[in-house]
Amino acid sequence: MxxxxxxxxxxxxxxxxxxxxxxxxxxxxxxxxxxxxxDSDIKHVLVRTEQAAVHEASGYARxxxxxxxxxxxxxxxxxxxxxxxxxxxxxxxxxxxxxxQVNSSLIGKDVFQEVDIxxxxxxxxxxxxxxxxxxxxxxxxxxxxxxxxxxxxxPVLIDxxxxxxxxxxxxxxxxxxxxxxxxxxxxxxxxQIKRAVEAIENSQRPxxxxxxxxxxxxxxxxxxxxxxxxxxxxxxxxxxxxxIPTDHPYYLGMIGSHGQKEANLALRQADLLIVxxxxxxxxxxxxxxxxxxxKIIHIDIDPAEIGKNVDxxxxxxxxxxxxLSEINKRISERKDFWAHDIKAHKKVLIDDxxxxxxxxxxxxxxxxxxxxxxxxxxxxxxxxxxxxxYIKEPGTFITSGGLGTMGYGVPAAIGAKFGRPDxxxxxxTGDGSFQMLLQELATIKREQVPxxxxxxxxxxxxxxxxxxxxxxxxxxxxxxxDGNPDFMIxxxxxxxxxxxxxxxxxxxxxxxIMKSHKGPFLLEVxxxxxxxxxx
Length: 535
Fold this sequence. Notes:
Layout: E1 2-5, H1 6-16, E2 21-24, H2 31-37, E3 43-46, H3 50-64, E4 68-72, H4 76-79, H5 82-90, E5 95-101, H6 117-121, E6 127-130, H7 137-149, E7 155-161, H8 162-166, E8 168-171, H9 190-202, E9 206-210, H10 212-216, H11 220-230, E10 234-236, E11 251-254, H12 261-269, E12 272-276, H13 282-285, E13 295-300, E14 314-317, H14 320-330, H15 340-344, H16 357-368, E15 373-376, H17 380-388, E16 397-398, H18 409-419, E17 425-430, H19 431-434, H20 441-447, E18 452-457, H21 462-471, H22 487-493, E19 497-501, H23 507-516, E20 521-526
Parallel strand pairs: 2-3, 2-4, 4-5, 5-7, 6-7, 9-10, 9-12, 10-11, 12-13, 13-14, 15-16, 15-17, 17-18, 18-20, 19-20
Antiparallel strand pairs: 1-8
């Protein structure tokens, strides 16, 4: 066994886990780790705020299927991670967050840059650790990666005091990880699978609701086999977009308060709802009520999610890919697709001389033919993107669903591009969301990350402005962004090429210019403040 500092041991464990890139900002409480990182081949991306580090790790994780890693110092560095960690937790993204902490002897004494980050993040991490015993660091790091990447994925935080990082230990990597009490169940119960098959075959109007768990488990092919064998229409949650291609003849769109009418109508008419990898929270259901006449099959790897928001007739705890594979072995073929009439009533969007957001998004879809990774921020543009972009591959529509975090899109795009440099990455954002973390333009410049940013500028916090218009009789307060910068000048300041689009005549030209540009590019799209979220 080799002797080395805890800091160096941390780096060696990261290497053994296949970590190639870390996002973070150094500080005094994490300096030993950064010193050890200097001698490794692991790439470090210097972000401009710690929240962006988590979002970039998230974008990387969601495009690669690997665990994303971010690092921060103690105190404000650690607390700046909190929103990103909560975002990853709500959307089941595997993250390992490493934070520095003050000397062990000073913990609890309110010294400079001390904060109880393990206590603060306990409600929205899968697990977290405050490392007190240097000898346990290797096991803790290995456990963190295992916990983050198995079962229902999610963030794990490791808080390491400075003095612990500096101590020497005998370095040895354990051959396997066995955590008492943590045994994720991947195989569904055979009896419940049998009951699910019977319920599907006895139903007249079955509907599948596909969530983010389908994408996380790599179950898209199994889902497609089921729906094509049984001629079942598919609706999705926001996180489930891309679980099957959005141009699939059985796909009816996203459900919920901002969902497509066809999807919500199918849900209301169904006699059987098959929920796969989704929790069906309030926004997903919207005003749609689950009737007593509708049976529900709920498949999820997290038993805590089953029955949380809707009563379930057939609960199946297990990995979506494995469960669907077993169902497909037993299911027969159905002759007819019952939702033809619903599919036929798909709404035609307004066709006039004005430049609408959906015009831009559909032109992007046409120009790229779905050969991209899309990230979005949160707001009207998120819904416009969800409804109008062509998504043909799972894991290529990346957004903040559960927490709804403004500022997520651009950093997630940076992480996604590092994870999949072979893919075009386009971030769809709004002027409100973009300004939450616009300092990441500096990261784009420094690292020369060739992402494309499509910025819808309506000089409003559009979704709240629309809410005030409808429910507060136009009593607008704190939703007008009068102080917006000139985004063209801002982009230029960071050495990023840009273009402003204000009319439909220049639309195709603008998209072609953006597509053909080899480096980072910002396309500002001037949009009416009164453009509705759903036309």
